[in-house]
Structure formats: structure tokens, C-alpha cells
User: Fold these one by one.
Assistant:
Number 1:
Amino acid sequence: MNDKKLYPKKSLGQNFLQDPNIIRKIVDTVQPLPDETIVEIGPGRGAITSYLAGKCRELILIEFDQNLADTLQKEYETDRHVRIIRDDILKTDWKEFLPADKIVGNLPYNISSQILFTLYKHAMDVGEAVFMVQKEFARRLVAEPSTKDYGIMTILTRLYGQAEILFHIPPTVFFPRPKVDSSVVRIRLDSDNNQDIDDKAFFHQLVRTAFNQRRKTLRNSLKKITGDQSIPCMDLSLRADALTFEDFKRLYHILKRDLPASV
Ligand code: SAM
């Protein structure tokens, strides 16, 4: 794959994995099983793909770059267990390839948040995700309250599953080398979790509204939702980042129960 057309494109976040030990470590984490459907986002030059192909019932590759998708198409044209979708992961209809047991990928870092938000919309149809992301982004998934990393991404990740950081990866294992460190994270999506939050759209709105002005007290930041009504049993002098996930759930239920007109 030394074709000039395949020279890494910065705009598509193309930092290709080069180190076989790291690639094997990622694949060991994914643990592909013979009866599984696995989706890979951004297979690129196939560094991870080549270790997944042949190890699962169905492998679906979603690659935006036409040249890379064409090359993968040629490489796997005789493998009926591999399907390639040449599309933008943010625009394609995920129903075309879901349900899946696992979604994996060394993600284009500039669109990691959007990919996760889309994943969460489809949480019911995915078992788990193993992603390589920027280290700072990984920290946001598992952050504790009252830290700078704690925010919308943390709370929504808790709403849909459980995230863990598995290991970190230095820039040296990529070509070209990114300017940042990376981390491999696992997110187990749990569709039984938080079923009491039946209006997910409102929960999202609540969390976004609270964190959009994270330096303000809840009394001020939530005005858009509650107007001037007080919220019973909540300390409104706190800021959003002081609230645990359970506090956000409590706030959601209070608003749904006591202030239904505003939600
Ligand atoms: N998996 C390969 C590896 O580890 O070497 C490549 C990872 S590279 C960080 C990200 C990959 O995502 C690239 O192949 C890039 O072309 C692809 N990509 C970028 N934006 C995309 C999008 N919106 N939809 C699908 N694939 C995308």
C-alpha cells in the first residue's frame, strides 16, 4: 500500500498504526469470537482489520476514504465474511450494519465525540465498543465530579454504559506521528441500565444545558429549562460539575415529576 494516493490525509485524521505489538494488544482486547458481528470504524490500511478478518462471523468496515476503501475492497473481495461500506460514519445509517456485538476503531480524533454520541443513540444494538482515542478524550469518559474533564461526555457515557481506560499508547507507534498521546478504552453498552430515564432526549437537554454554562450555578444555568421556578430538594447554588451521575438522575426525576410543564 505505498501508492501516493494513499499518503495520509490530515483532514481525515489518518494516523496509521505501525507497531505489530500494539496492534496485537488491541486485538487481544477486542477478543473477536467466531459467532460475532464486529464493525470497524476507519479501518484505514487494515492494521487492525487483518487480525479481525477470519476471526468473526461478520466483519463490517466503514471507511470514508475512497482509495483506502477500494484497496480494502480488493483485499477482501473473496472473503464473504467481510463487508465494506464506503461512507462517512457520521452520515451513514447505522441501521445498515447494526446490531453488532462489538464496534472497534482507531478513531479519527476530530470526530470522536460525534461518533460516541451516535453510538449512544444506538446503544441498544451494540454490545461493546473498543476505541482508540486521544488520551484527554479518554479521561473525559471516566472523569470524577469537580474535575476539569468531567462533563457532558462523562454523564452520557454513564447513561448508556460503563467505560474503562485499558492502556495508553505513545505517538511513536503511528505514521505519521500525532502530537498527542492515545488511549484504548472499552465501553460496555448496557441497555438495561437506567431504564427509569425514559425520556433520553430530555436527559440530554438537561445535561447539556447545565454544562453549557458550567461556571454558573445551577440556579442560573438551568433557567432555560425551569424559568424562575425553584427546584425542590436540590441545592441550586452548586455548579453542574459538582453533581454526580446519580444527582443528575435525581434532578431529571424531580423536573419530570414536579415541574412537568417546563419539560
Ligand atoms: N484503523 C487504521 C489504523 O489504526 O491504522 C486507521 C486509523 S486512522 C486514525 C482513522 C481512519 O478513519 C482513517 O482510515 C480515515 O480515513 C478514517 N475516517 C476518517 N473520517 C472518517 C469518517 N467520517 N467516516 C469513516 N471513516 C473515517
Number 2:
Amino acid sequence: MSTLFLHGIGLLVTNDQHTSGARADDPLGAVEDAALIARDGQVVWAGRQADAAPQVARLLQGDVERVDAGGRAVIPGFVDSHTHLAFAGDRSAEFVARMAGERYAAGGIRSTVAATRAASDEQLRATLQHFERELASQGTTSFEVKTGYGLDVDNEERLARLAREVTDEVTFLGAHVVPSEYADDRSGYVDLVTGPMLHACAPHARWIDVFCDEGAFTAEEAERILTAGRDRGLGVRIHAGQLGEGEGVRVAVGLDAASVDHATYLSADDVAALAASNTVCTLLPGVEFSTRHPYPDARALLSAGVTIALASDCNPGSCFTSSMPFVIALAVRELGMTPDEALWAATAGGARALRRDDVGRLSPGASADLVLLDAPSHVYLAYRPGVPLVRRVWKHGVELRVD
Ligand code: NIG
Ligand code: FE
């Protein structure tokens, strides 16, 4: 039985208002002068260190790893609910052209498809493992990975299978764009996605997703594809409103999607539909940063009562950052979210977007996925943008190497 005792925490963010010492109206469930005990990978106690004495005596028996946080902040590991890490190739030239004024378009995806199809399993596996370490070093302890750069049955199946080696949260995105060989037969491609491709990928996946936007799939196509995935037992998510308004949000909410992602362009009806639903709205401000698009209106979504998650969307085209601290800094600086709202959205919000209750919080029963910051509070993530503040990271109570 292994026990981790983290004490001397200047500020502990639990995302649980019931934590001893937390204010009942604070969604972050933040506690000053705190301690946390984890056993066998799960949090068993968290709260004010001064209140810990009886529990500490009982729980701190046997083999205990003691860590003095030295007054620094501890937060839940980031939950990055939207990435496209299963790919090969390089599109830095596309980024350079964009910075010189070119517009982002969905079609660039096809160049990554060609490179990904040409890559071996070993290359793709090495890339995924590299990203897993890169994410951990920045405090991300849970992450989703989409397929979508294979776009034929064998390649989509292999991306889903390889992604499953690094995460439980695999999303089948055969409907990323229509591949070149189906340029004259869109409905044939939708048949492939909803038939043999779904059949091959579903065993490795938890989710189905569609890129419903200009240059990608229509709302009618999205509805067909998502319904097929749902009928196959997959949860629903969607890329919508990245390049323009459309019917994607309506379709996704109608299918009880876990998340609508991007949401840069939303109608008032979209915002109302999200507010009245169980669907999280996942904002990806790294995309707007890397494509020079206008940022989404996070304040309008929050005022309407929509639940927001923040994610990286790490991909070789529209946004090649895997840094959740950077995303938080953008959310605060560019979306007008408070540092508290941004941290919640990058942890508990991401967990909601993946319909998970065991991550994104640090209260009893949760996985002991936590980050010790080299800072007195999470506010520093936005206050000191670009500075590596992630000092130590634990997943299931086991410390990950972050250097
Ligand atoms: O989320 N929008 C669709 N997919 C990615 C971009 C993929 C690419 O350009 O390679 C996104 O932005
Ligand atoms: Fe995406």
C-alpha cells in the first residue's frame, strides 16, 4: 500500500466546494495552508492542514512518501479534452504563410493525411509517446486523442489502436474532411465512415466526432455520422463554429453530445441551446492565436450559464501547442475569463467534457493526478505566461518525470 502525503501547500485547488476549509461558494474549492493524502492512486483526504491531525495519524501508516510543498500551490492535473496527436509530417510552412496573411482552411488536413498514411506504426507510436511526455511535463495528466489523419479504414483503425496505447479517451474522427480519392463521391465517403470505418474503429474508441464546418461536413452529414456512432455505443462530440456559424451545435445538442468544440462563431440560438443542455462548450483559444481568427465570446457563454472547458486542440495545422498553461493565459488575456474560471475550465471543465468524475478534482475518490506549481497560486499561470511553472506532477499518486 503506497501513501503520498503532500503538506505545506500554500493553496490547494480541489474543485470541490465541500472540502474542509473551502468557501461554500468557491467552485475551485480552494484551501489555504492545506495538505493532501493519496493512497493507492486515489485521494483519500484533502483540506486544511490544521484539520488533518486525526486523519493523518490513521492514514499515514506504513510506507509514506512525504512531500513538503513549501507554501507553493497544488492544482488538479490538466484535463485536455481535445487533441489531434496521432499524425506524421510537418506543416510549419503553412503557419508561416498564415502569419504572412493567408487564411486557415480545412483543406490543409489532407497534407497531414498523406504523411500519416506513409508513416510506420513505430513512427506514430514514438510520436504519441513523445507527446504523452510533453503533455505531462506541462501538467496534463488526462488527454483525449482523435483519429482523423488516416481517412481510410486501415489507417483510421491503426490511429485509433495506437492512440489507445496512450489514453482511454480515443475519438473516432473519420469525418475530419472528405479525402481526395472521394472528392467526387461525398456520400460514398459518409457511407464508408458510418459503415466499415466505424466498425473497425469503434472497438478502440470511446467517442465519435465530426468536423462540421465550411470545407468539411454539412450538418446533415454530421447528423448521419454522429447518429451511427451513437447507435454503435460511442459518445458524441463535434467540431462546430470554427470557421463560421452553422447547424452543428443544434445537431450535437440534439444528440446529447458531451461537447461542442471551437464555438468561435455561434448564433444566439446556439448559446441558448447549449445553456439548456448537458453539452459542454470547449473553447480552444490556441487556434485563434495560431490562425489570427477572432476569439470566441466566452463571457456571453458564461453569462448564459454554459459550462466551458478549455483544451489545447494540439494539431499540426490550426494550433500546434500542447501547453494548457498557455491556453489558460490566452483565456484570461483574450477571452476575458478570470484566472479562477480558466483553471476550472482546464481541469474540471475538461473532465465534464469527457463525462468523467474521477479526474479534474482533488477530493476523496478522485484519481491522485496533481501538479505542484512553482508559484503561490494558479493565478501565476496567466500572470507569468510562457514561464515553466509546473514543478512536479503525479498521476494515480505516482510521480512523473517532468524534466
Ligand atoms: O480542430 N478543425 C478541424 N480539425 C483541427 C485542425 C486540423 C488540421 O488543420 O490539421 C482543428 O482545428
Ligand atoms: Fe480539433
Number 3:
Amino acid sequence: MTNQNNKTEYQGPERVFSGVQPTGQLHLGNYLGAIKRFVHLQEEMETIYCVVDLHAITTWQDPKELHSAIREVTAFYIACGLDPKRSILFNQSKVSAHAELAWIFNCVARMGWLNRMTQFKDKAGKNRENASVGLFAYPSLMAADILAYKATHVPVGDDQKQHLELSRDIAQKFNNDFGSLRPGAEHFFPLPEPLIAGPAPRVMSLRDGSKKMSKSDPSDMTRIHLSDSDDDLAKKIRKARTDPEALPSESAGLKDRPEAENLVTIFAALADRTKDDVLSEFGGAQFSAFKPALADLAVATLAPFRDKAEELMAAPDEIDRILEDGAARARAIADPILAEVKDLVGFI
Ligand code: TRP
């Protein structure tokens, strides 16, 4: 993996950072789009994964639900293969460098930059006057998450690209404003690069092949939760919307058949096969034959994760211990960087 844009300037090590919202209800799109990649990346690079509870409270969270969601997300990530010894896994509020650096970045970022963020506009909706200040400042906290570790690579979905560009702008302005005053510090922060989900599949709603599978869809039947029972998994796949045609024998034949394409995409991703390979087996088959095969595959792949996560959640002390250990290792990286930042800014 190369660091094309700032290789010559930034001298530090390559490091991956990503943040995960603590929503208890992880779904198949989260697994195939993010978790699976996070697990692969830990084989290749130093990886830091953070459950972003500070970000979560930019919109109202019931404290009890937040508390259990932090543990549940942690449990599922571990159950799906994230190794808390290899990766640093912790929750954001345990490491005060995030909030401290975010404040400094609030004073680096410009109102105009944040005003352009489309996620704020979407999340605030019509009633912008009533949105929290934290929701507006969300992207500078995200920049702080990444830059507190001088992370160079950030696996994110398309929807987070704009926030990552803002992180680069903040890093660049900080480097210009403060680094130029001190020789050698003009490349203090790396300009973090997105690792955009290249081969990761887009998992769509089971009820509407034109919409992404999303935790915010009011209907449960549109998505597969990682916590679903075997029966629920099978039922949701059986009831997934399809068209009346048989499956084509090549992926070109899925064009303009978004629901068929989605089920084939899910099958291929779960089996680590290409769509063409799956269709060479199922081409000509009716959905009445394909769906049970997909349900069996989904149960075989996902049930072990669910069972392992349940086992972990039955021992919350163990989860808390893992998070505390991760936080200590995170502080060991972030605190010295924050100390340098404070020095550059002029704090005593
Ligand atoms: N905003 C990201 C999301 O909603 C979560 C996040 C917070 C994040 N901090 C981050 C992602 C830092 C990558 C890096 O998905």
C-alpha cells in the first residue's frame, strides 16, 4: 500500500484508523462493507478501530441503550474476526485526546468548510436551529480521531468521503499555520487517505433493490441483522422481493434487475466467489431454488458470529477489559502526539 499524495513529506509509519458508530443493530451491509475489510486490514497494517460514542451523542441517545450498544458492537466485531490483540479496539470516550484535539481543530476548521457538509444537512433536516452544536462540529471530531494517531489510511464508505476530505483540509491548515513557524513541523500531520470500499459489495434493501440496506429503514424485513436467529434469516431471505424471471447465467444479465442483482451479490460476497461464478451454478434456476441455498449459506456464515457475540455479551466484564486494554494502548500513541500539538499551539 502506498502513500502517494504525501509520501515525500510525511515520514511517519502507515497506520489505519476507522470509527464505528455504536448502534446495537449491526446488519449484513455493515459486515460485508466494513467489518470484513477491517478484519483483512489487520493482517496488513497497524490498525486502530474505535467505537465512536462521542459521535453517537451528537444526536439523542438513551444512556442505557448507548451503554449496551457499545458492548454489543465490540462483541460483534470480535466475533466476526477482529483480533483485539492485533488491532487496537476501544471506545472513544475513554481516550481524552479525541475531545481535546477536536477542540483545537474546531479552532482550525472554518465555518464555511463545515457549512458545506452534506451529512449535517441530511441529519439536521429542516430544523437546523434545533440541531446540536456537536452535530455541526462532528467532522472536526472525526479529524481528531484520525489525526490523534497520525493515521495515514482510513477505510470508509462513500458517505464519509467528504468528511475525510475535511480531515485533510484541517491537517493541511494546521501544518501551514503552526508547522511553518517551526522548521521540520510543516508536515506534522499526514494527509490521511481514504481506503474506499473497492471490491466491497453494495448491499441493498431486501425490499427495494434501489435503496441501500440501512439501519434507519423503518421495516426490519429490509435488512438482515447480525443478531437475527436462523429462522429470521431464512424468513427474510424467503420474503425478499424478486422479479418473476429465472436467474441469468452471467452477471451481465442482472442489469435492470436490482433485486436479483442484490441477492446474487450477497451470495457471492458471503461465499467469497464472483457473481459470474455463482451464476454459472445457478443460471436458469428460479428464486424458489436460489433463495433456500442463499438462506443456508447466510445461516452457515453468520450464525457462528451471532453465537460467539452472544457468548461474549454474556461476559460483559471481559468486553470492558478488552476496551480498557485497547484504550491504554491508544493513549500511548495519542497522548505524545497531543502533547506536541499543544506545544505547537503555544500552550504551556
Ligand atoms: N463518521 C463515521 C461514520 O458515520 C464514523 C467515524 C467517526 C469515523 N470517526 C471516524 C470513520 C474516523 C473513520 C475515521 O461512519
Number 4:
Amino acid sequence: MATDTRHTALSDWHLQETSALLELQGVDPAWGLHHSEVRERQDRFGKNSLPNRIRRSVARLLAEQFSDVMVLVLLAAAVVSGLIGEWVDTLVIVIIIVLNACFGLVQSWRADQALAALKEMSTPKSTVLRDGQVQRVETETLVPGDIVILEAGNQVPADLRLLETAHLKVDESTLTGESQTIDKHSDLMTDPVLALGDKLNMAYRGTTVTHGRAKGLVVGTGLATEMGKIAELLSHASVRQTPLQRRLAVFGKRLAVVVVAICAVIFVAGILRGEPTLLMVMTALSLAVAAIPEALPAVVTVLLALGAKKLASLNALIRHLPAVETLGSVSYICSDKTGTLTQNHMRVERVAIPAGGESVIRPFQDCAKEAGLLQLFRAAACCNDSSCNANNQWQGDPTETALIEAAITLGVDKDQLDSAMPRTHEAPFDSKRKRMSTVHQNGDALTVFVKGSPESVIPLCSRLWQPEPGAPESAAVDPRNWLDLAQTMAGHGLRVLALAQKSLASLDTQQLNDQDLESGLTLLGLVGLADPPRPQAHQAIEECLAAGITPVMITGDHPATALAIAKELGLIDKSSTTVMTGPQLLAMSKEELAKQVESVRVYARVDPSQKIRIVQALQASGQFVAMTGDGVNDAPALKHADIGIAMGKSGTDVAREASNLVLLDDDFATIVKAVREGRRIFDNIRKFVRYTMTSNSGEIWTIFLAPMVFLPIPLLPIHILWINLVTDGLPGLALASEPAEPRLMRRPPRASDESMFAHGMWQHILAVGLLIAALCLGVQAWAIEAGHDNWQTMVFTVLTLGQMAHVIAIRSESQPIWKLGLASNKPLLGAVLLTFMLQMMVIYWPPLQGLFKTQALSLGQLGLCLLAAAVVWLAVELEKAWRNRGQIAQ
Ligand code: ATP
């Protein structure tokens, strides 16, 4: 029976023998826990998760709606009007505030839901041994007693007492702040007072494996982990605003000063003209409340969160909200080759084995089962970390599973090999060395197998494999010849591996270092693996080029392989031979690289740690860089890139943590789709800002200019509040559903530091606002002149309908509405119709007439208001046509 580990001192695990701990936990190290036991422990210990504070309670959301300074000012105004007996005004203001708060509440709630759903989609998984099988399970389900398997790139999912380790290095900086990686082991430790970082036989939740492999026993989960102890602190970290939100907030503050000044002028002018003081106070106040874009950052959050939700449905999971808005600025996409541009479905296609004097490349299918080939694939099966799952499928690195599958077709049995020649030692693969080695007990002796890139393995070989050892002269390796063979294979777009072996007298493997293992080898031959391009990659690359985005391939593969695939994908011309290799990159100074970086489309034999130089050089030349990565060493480049993109399927936890965006399907085409969506979302945010700011400008101009042209104050405070807090909101938000502009991916990327108000936006805001004001005041003057005492209702209606006309006209920045079709954004059409109906109710329905102090309009008067609105629409269409005259002519 397992002991309740929660009640055992958290710090003592390192002092216990692993066998004793396994017994205490009631777990067999070769079998893991039984599923019934897992369930029972889940009930007892709860989920292995830390508190998640994304979802705010409805009460909190509601409180936030009323914490706005402007809303508080308005509430004060409502109280003041109540005190002086204007009960109707108080009621209307309160109703409007409540409606507005409900609207805000629903929006914030939707945003929270979207973000929480995204968070849930990125629930991490871990590899465990349960019911005698290695399984991938959700990290949340881990319980004390589970046996976890760790490999490079994993985030440690719970507190573990290590049972076995192979070159395990862990980065514990998240927990201890120590930036050096720490070598871990599974030996017993005896010092009872050790700091966390010194307990070398433990691995802690939230830290990351940077190198090697290990098996560990879960001793603490959820809040009972070391990370759990500080989780409370972490969960209070504030949510950062996006750059756009910050810019809008700064802008809003500046604008507030201007608006307050204008309101003061209006107030003073009104008093001087002898208007009632209370009316002027309320007018100035309503105008300030309405015209200060306080809600902009909040609405932007809603638009970004909904955008992130849409992106998730396209398989692009956003980890940080700002990435949604910056995606549209991407000008370079640096992508890995394997798995992102290609399918990562490897297949052995060609082989070359030592054959007398001359070795040639042969198609794998045509090869006879000769001894040399069998030995090559025996090595490939032994020096291999793939494992077979319950469904008889091979799991692991696709390069390795392809080798196993090829070996099986030759009749090689991995299980049999593993039991005849058990692995006693290993030097795991890493993308810097580009090779791996394994040591196997072979009777009394040891056999070493080495597998890796030809350049890293062939120079370590001194002879060629022969069916019968002997005749050493003919068996000498000609490295040039073999490297040429590898180059030829790579020229066909194949990933090439060289395999080698050697025998050693039985030694204590602990005494061996990697150099002893990997020298004086016998070359077994070369294997060429095909990995076809992804079906959509070619088209996605074309789309990038049309959109002014430069796609770049960065791979650890051979330059010839990289070039062949890049040509097949249309990334470079068929005649191009320009490829920069990792060693060349290394030899270059910062300045030299900066000069060349914009002309290179293919990088080969680059190890991930060099990617950061490419990112920096591109950024220094003003590019906005998206970079993909999947391994531990990719993390620095991912962090440094403007948009770091991790692979959801094949990526490591470390890469995911360092990224802003996770590709759920690992597909390059998804990046392009995400950029497209990012551009659409940003366009729509701009449209929203254009719409609201022009509405505000229209109101300010109207009220500001009326006294100048000797007209009475055109609108009552409740009219202003009604327009801004109710009728403006719905159509504005419906702009988020606006489909992509037709030429969206035919225009160059937006500069990342470009102002929101660029491309004539602020001129539009001022001029169209002025036009709306002119129409309002024109109608007001005409109505007063003609003796219509419902002139105020007419101004109110012109303003509302003018804004509806405006929102329809700005739906596209390039296309006229008759080309777009009214029904192409149904939510917006619905919002406009609803707003129209609401306005009609306010004008014609007696109870509302009383509240809003309106009077019914005659059909002719309503027609005039509609005509005025049509003028706004026509003017904006003309402005659009004039601005896009170049493109329309195309
Ligand atoms: P890409 O960027 O295209 O995804 P990569 O950068 O991930 O590729 P690596 O996986 O680092 O490339 O591989 C680099 C080289 O190392 C390969 O060309 C191959 O020769 C060798 N290699 C790859 N996988 C293995 C492996 N499992 N065992 C031994 N050698 C390998």
C-alpha cells in the first residue's frame, strides 16, 4: 500500500534508496502503476496542476465594468440630476450605464472564455510507464508512484526521485534562478541539509531537461511540489498589455486632455451665452465620457482574444496575445525543413555499402539481402531509440523509425537484437555533434555502433566493413569517395546517415569517454532517406512571396539535401546554388553576416544555437522575423525572434515555453494562414478604431461648432450617451467579423512600428467627423428656420444614421460596398438593422420619447435624415476610390 506522500517531508526524497522508495510507493519499476491504482491515487491526491487564474468570476468582471473612472463620473452625474429632481435623466443615465456594463461584461467574459480554452488546448503531456507500457498521458493525471520517462526538451512534470539517468542535464533556473545546467544522477545522497539545486538525484516540476534521458519516480504532484510552493506567487503575476494596447492607452490619455479642454471651452461658451448651468455641466460631462476612448484597450483585448480563438481553429495556438497583432507585420519566416516544410514521413530510399573496390548508390528496394546490408541495418536497429507501442507501431524520431521499418523488411528483429546485445552505454544524439553512439554487450566483448551525418562519422572511420575480416588494404576508407557518395545522395533531396561500428574488449563502460567510443571505426555504409515536401508547402511559399514575406529554410541537413528540397518547394530558382552553411556562418563577423543575410534563402548544417545569429542579423536590417523551432537548443532563437513558433506535434516542452505561437499540425502552410489571419485581425482593429474615433469626432465637432454658427446646443446629454454607449458599440464590434480584404496577401507587410493612425486614418477621422457635423448642423439650421420644433430629434437621428452609413462604408479599405455585398458580414448587417430599429423606437415609441425627450419625425423629415446619412456613405466611398485609384486601375 502506498504511503500518502503528501504528508511525508517534501525534502527527504534524496536521502532514500530508490528500491525502498519503489516499495514504499507500491510500484514495480518494470511495470509502473496499474490503471486502477492510478485512478484511486487521483481521487486521493487530486490533479497534478497548479492554480490557473485566467477565468475571472462574473462578480469580478462586473466590478471591473464599474471601476472605470468615466463610468464613476457618470454615476455621480446621475446622482446630481436625481438630487435636483431630474429623475427621468437619472433613470436614463443609470439604464444606459447598466446596458453598457452588461455589454462590456459579455465581451470580457467571451474574451476570458476564449483565452481559457486556448490554455486548455495547450495542456502538456508526459511520457509514463503504466500497465507495463510506455504511454503519453496528460501531465495533469500524474500521481505519486508513477514512473516518468524524461528526454531532452521535456519539462519535468512533477517532482521526481531519479531512478536511472543517461547524461541527464537539467536547467533549474525557473526554480532556483541558477542559469547553469546541472548534471543529475540517480545515486543515493547522504547529506540531509542540501539546497534544492544540490539535490542531484531529484528532478523538480517546471525545470527542463536540456540533455540526455532519465527515468524517475513521481514523489510529489500539484501543489505538493517545490514549484507548487511558489505557485501562489507566480499566479499573481499581472497580465501584460500588448504593445498596441499600451500605445492606445497612451494615445487615449493624450486625447483625454484635448477632449477635456474642448469640453471646458464648450462649457464656458454655453454659460456665456446664458444656457442653464446644469445643462452645460451635463453636456460637457457627457461629451467627455463619450469622446474619451477609454474602452479602446479593452475592446482591443476582446478582438485579439476572439482572433486567437479563430487562429486556434486554424491549428495555430497563440501563447501570448500580442502575437495576434504582430503576426501581420512578419516580413521573414525562417522555417525548419524537416516536419514543417516536409512531411517528416521518412522512408529509406537509397543505400551504399562497401562492395569490393567500388561502392555505388543503389535503390533500397532492389537490394539483395547480402551480409553488408544486413549488418548496416542491424547497426541502424541497435543504435536507435524507437520503441514499439501496443498497436505494433514504431514510435520515436521519424528518421529512426524509418530505419527500423527498413530493417524489418530485411528480416532484422529488434527485440531479438536487444536481448542478444543489450545496450550498456550511450552517447545520445545531439544536433551539434550530429551523431549518436550506443555500446552493446556482445558475449564477452562490447560492440559500439555510431550513426550520424556523413561529415561527422566518416572522418572517424579507419576501415570499411567486410563480410570476413582480413585483407586490410582493400578495406581502407577513402573519405573523399564516401563523402562524394553522400553528396550525390543528398543532391536527390535525401537525408543521409552514415553508420559505423567497432568492437571493444569488455571494460567498465563508466571508464569510456565519447572519444574512445567514436574513433577507429569500421564504416558500414550510407543510408539515404526520402522525406517528401508537405502538399500545401509549395502554394504557401508562393503566397508568402506575393505578400512580401521572404521564406527561409534553416536545416541541420546536408547543403545538397537542403538545396534540392528548396528547389522542389519553389523557395529558390532551379539554377540557384546559394546556400550558407553553419560553419560559414560561424566564420562570419556580425557585419559580414548583416551584408549577406537578406540574400540567403537556404541555410544548411546549421545547429540550432546558430539560429539566433540569423534572427539578430535580420532584425538588425529592419526585418520582422518569425522563426520556427522544436528542440531545446532552439529556445534562445525562438525567444529572440519577433514571433517564435514551436511545433505542437514534434516540439519539445522547452521550445513551446519559449514560443509565442504553437503550430498544432507542424505545417508551414499554417504559419502563412496565421499571418493572413493576423493581418485580417489587425485590419479589423483599425476599422474599429476608425469607426469609433470618427463617431466621437462627429459628436465633438457638432457640439463644438454649433455655438460658433449661432445655433443652440444641438443634443441633450442623454442623446450623446445613447449614441456612444449603446448604438455605437454593436456595429463597432461586428467589424471583428469582417472577412479578409481581397488583396490582403498581395500587399507588403505592415511596418511593426507603424502608427495605428497611418495611411490617412487621422485625416479621415477629422474630415468625416467634420462632414457629419456639417450635415447635423445644416439639418438643425434648416429645421429651426422652417419652424420644426422637433429639430433636436432630427440632429440626433442624422448623427445615429450617419454613423451607420459610415460603418457600412468603412467595412473595406479598398473595395466599394457594392462589390463586397451587404450580406458578406451578416453580424454587422444585423447590428446596423438592430441599431436602426432601436433608434426608431426612441423616436416613435411614446414611453421612450418621454425618456429621451424626442418627438416623432414626419416621413419627409426621416427621409432627409436618411439622405444626410447617404451623403456620409457616398463621401467615404469617394474617398476610398480616390485613395485606391492606383490599385483599381491595375
Ligand atoms: P530540420 O531543421 O530540417 O528539422 P534538423 O536541424 O532538426 O533538421 P537534425 O535533426 O539536427 O536536423 O539533423 C542533422 C543531421 O544529423 C541530419 O542531417 C542527419 O545526418 C543527422 N541525424 C539526424 N537524426 C539523427 C539520428 N536520430 N541519429 C543520428 N544522426 C541523425
